[in-house]
Amino acid sequence: MAKNHTRYIFSMGELKRKDNSIAFVNEKGNFYIPIEDTRELYCLNEVSFNTKFLDFISRARITLHLFNYHGNYSGTFYPKDTYISGDLTIKQSYAFVENRLVIAKSIVLAISKNIHEVLYHYYRHDTKELKPYLDWLKNDVVKFLEKELTIEQTMFIEGQIWHRFYDSFKHFLPEDFVMNKRVKRPPDNPINALVSFGNTLLYTKTISAIHQTHLNQSISFLHSPREGRFSLSLDLSEAFKPIIVFKTIFDLVGRKQLQVAKHFDKDLNFALLNEAGKKIFINAFETRINETFMHPKLKRKVSYKQCLKLDGYKLIKHILEEREFVPFLLKEKQ
Hints:
CATH architecture of the largest domain: Up-down Bundle
Helix content: 40-55%
Distance between the termini: 27 Å
Largest sheet: 4 strands, mixed
Radius of gyration: 20 Å
């Protein structure tokens, strides 16, 4: 049986092994999680466990993602690494030295194209104020990236792309969800809270996807490898943010399934999703990332989550075979 399910734990409690199952124990009782079809566990509150439990889920090849009470990502425990390739790590390091800028530019261009595709949907539905944003993304960004740039200049262009994207929200989102400026830690308003939570979920999904390849998580191309995180996951998640994170946000807000007064913690100035809000967001996020479509090259249906791993394989082919690296593009569906 394929291990496809992601399980989310929202309450405080304890995780432990019980016979050949996972038991979550709190004041409400014991809740059992089947291991046969579980790939990932997300702990979105303070949860305790011991090394016996970690050994159990490692042998079951289950990845554990940990968040603190305020929803900030703490870290990931994943099974003993059976995908390490010394040869690929050496060549990945060489690609960083020799070809970093080419790969970084490809990622930034993919971000721009996917944001254009997302905004074009609203432009077609009579939000004509988006035309200057669309023109800038389609014309100016391409011209900028064709120039000889440093990695710092490339990252500056990426920052400008996101800045203009955030600015466009005022034309199609309710006033409660308009972003004045991007604030990460801690978020200072509902839209920042949604973006931070969604980006973190996508980041952890990308960690899991890269773990299934032979790539080294610490050697990245757009983001600095010295950032002390799984920086390659930051790289490969970027092109998917407009498609998965922001489309999820826009759909939930547009349909009023998420509301400031009902789904955000008022004691924290509405800058943190409450448990009900997290459940709504996660359900929509999982639906989106597991949505399938016909892949034009593979000639079979794949999900966006599978495409995260496919982008890892594209990068491997670039490193080993010098094929052009083109991250996932929504318009081409590949």
